[in-house]
Specification:
Number of helices: 22
Shape: globular
Mean pLDDT: 94
Helix content: 40-55%
Strand order of the largest sheet: 6-5-4-10-11
Oligomer: single chain
Distance between the termini: 36 Å
Length: 554
Amino acid sequence: MPDLLRGAIAAALGAAGISISPSDVPLEHPAELKNGDYSTSVALKYTKEAGMPPRTLAEKIVAALGTIGGVAKIEVAGAGFINFYLAPSALAEAVEKARADDKWGSGALNARKKIMVEYTDPNPFKEFHIGHLMSNAIGESIARLLQFSGAEVKRANYQGDVGPHVAKAIWGIEKLGLDASDSSALGKAYAAGSEAYESDATAKQEIDALNAKVYDRADAHVNEVYAAGRKASLAHFEELYKILGTKFDHYFFESETAPRGVALVQAHPKVFIQSDGAIVYRGEDDGLHTRVFLTSKGLPTYETKELGLAELKAETWDFDTSITITAHEQSDYFEVVLAAMKKVLPALAAKITHISHGMMRFADGKMSSRTGNVITGESLLLDLTDAARERAKESRADDVDALAQAVAVAAVKYQILKQASGKDIIFDRERALSLEGDSGPYLQYAHARAQQVVEKAKGQGVVAATDAKVEPNDLVRLLHRFPEAVEYAASHNEPHLLTNYLLAFASAFNSWYAQVHVLDGTSEAAHKVALADAVRQTLKNGLWVLGIPSPERM
């Protein structure tokens, strides 16, 4: 429909003596449904070229448009806007498509594109913190948006399995006598090592020595402790990925990327220069800042490993674009890395895109969990699951624990995804778990409600059927916009644009449900059940794109 309207408007404008491409025609959905399904400000945009007031030009355009298939009414409004109202038949067609097509809402915006999305990136030997949870929620949804819009998507996870943090954890394991194969002990070991590194000169020397041993693999005992801790960490992360609904295609590790990065740095002495015994990249030439790529001890920094990662990614899969999701605090770092990469891997650097996200803060100001430790991504999930379990016991769900976990995931992901990725988030626990508006569970409950309507209709022998003659309501008109909402979000790599749509759509469904009696025994029941079924599929697909489960009973 948007393509049809743009083509018709461009042709009508041509009749007024102004030649433009259909792609140059501004077209949007009016903010209020009473003003139509589509609106264009083309008359205001080209009023000077036409040499007439915008409203006069709009009237000429409307006169030249004639009849457009699927459009019931066209009117000029305000200073010269042109509003289009879709015909009942066009809206009924959307209802039927939603019911018949499991991929309803998907498109071809990114067809034939190969895109790698790297996100989450937790480090073995450390806890899965809030930043990892945010990166996972945003990265998974962006991956699904791209996938739903036609791209071939590979999910990648880059993890720091070497570096000072590993040495600190191993030091803590040894000093505290902990079991390296117990993932729950690793966070405690790292905390102990990190504190000692800052406060104890002897401990600092010991940890630095351990760090070198982790890199050179020369100490059998250190290797054994390292292998056990790495394995335990990665296995535990997999448990969290399963809960969050993520399955990665590729895993990259700093132990693999480090030697590659070192080779790249050493091969370009004119790009990376010596400074106080270290090897640096002077970003000032690019309006940035200087960063170290090899320390004075010859060890690679994160920057060097990032170069090796880009090279390894490209050898693993011939992508068109590689998107990396990180916290906003790493943006400056990433700019310098990309600037250096343009000089040593120019073709590859052109394919790299960075998307940053903000920080999460808590509405009550508390930053510690029930045990008194800093809240981690994992502890937040567990806390929300416990709270949701109490409510789930009163539901119609067959599996209370599964529902509690699904609600917890929805609660935290929705709060992360409901606003632009780069913004900080104020997390409000009660609002996140609420079933009443602006929350993930609210969307889930709307889906479950639509599902129950359909199941109840089947039990009563009511066969769903769309009536193209029925006057469309606001719910149908919003449903028609779903594919465009998905495409718009995908074109901007911004899940919050789809989240906003789904909230408005779920609200419209709940209002409709409260105002009508669906299974009223009349001939209209079949049409109302068909609409509920279309709503069910729309919410299910929309929630899937956000990476949120869609329980059938709540």
